[in-house]
Design a protein that fits this description.
Elements lengths: L5 E5 L6 H8 L5 E3 L3 E2 L14 E2 L2 H9 L3 E7 L2 E6 H9 L3 E5 L2 H10 L4 E6 L3 H11 L4 H15 L7 E4 L5 H16 L17
Parallel strand pairs: 1-7, 1-8, 2-7, 3-4, 8-9
Antiparallel strand pairs: 3-6, 5-6
Length: 203
């Protein structure tokens, strides 16, 4: 019960993962796992806050040393989850929240079977498309690509431990449901040795 839980959250773009996670992090028992990347910082980004910015040589060294829980290469840059931060915070009793795609989530699960994988899904694909269009930040080709990716991601739901549906205006409810999952998992018999002492029958 004193050890933290690794909570891996995935879901399609536009489903509201960021808003739900922000609500979870209002609870001091939760911390967000900052990813490492080899890309250059963008304006306003800070090392250790948005990402851990490292060189490609350093990232590859971490891979060889098994210091990454998961990683991927995208457009010539590496992205991944440093193992040391996660293990340190779990040891402190914190629940570590990791937001990654389905491929990364399955990498984590293979290395840490006790990790809890939660997929946040939309009420419907039509609803998801409406959300993406409502953001007004992406053109038609990007929306089509995101919808195609979403359908692919939905095919991995059966690899997850839980699926929570996030309605448009119910992100607080979604966060509470995820907190309930974490609480239930912490009381799971598989996570601890349950020993109930016998009554001391003194005469």
């Amino acid at each position: 019960m004193n050890k933290g839980l690794l909570l891996v959250i995935s879901g399609p773009a536009g489903v509201g993962k960021g808003t739900v996670i922000k609500k979870l992090l209002e609870n001091k028992d939760y911390v967000f796992s900052v990813s490492a990347t080899t890309r250059s910082p963008r304006t306003g980004e800070e090392d250790g806050i948005n990402y851990y910015f490292v060189t490609k040589n350093e990232f590859q060294r971490k891979i060889r040393a098994n210091e990454m829980l998961e990683y991927a290469e995208y457009v010539g840059n590496f992205y991944g989850t440093p193992r040391s931060f996660v293990m340190s915070k779990l040891g402190e009793g914190k629940n570590v929240v990791l937001e990654i795609d389905t491929a990364g989530a399955l990498q984590v699960k293979s290395q840490m079977p006790d990790a809890v994988l939660v997929f946040i899904g939309p009420p419907s694909m039509e609803n998801l498309e409406e959300r993406l269009r409502g953001r007004g930040t992406e053109d038609e080709s990007v929306i089509e690509r995101r919808m195609k990716t979403a359908k692919k991601e939905l095919g991995f739901i059966n690899k997850y431990d839980y699926c929570v549906i996030n309605d448009d205006s119910a992100w607080e409810k979604t966060a509470r449901e995820i907190e309930a999952i974490v609480l239930a998992e912490k009381h799971s018999v598989k996570r601890k040795n349950v020993i109930i002492p016998e009554k001391n029958n003194r005469q």
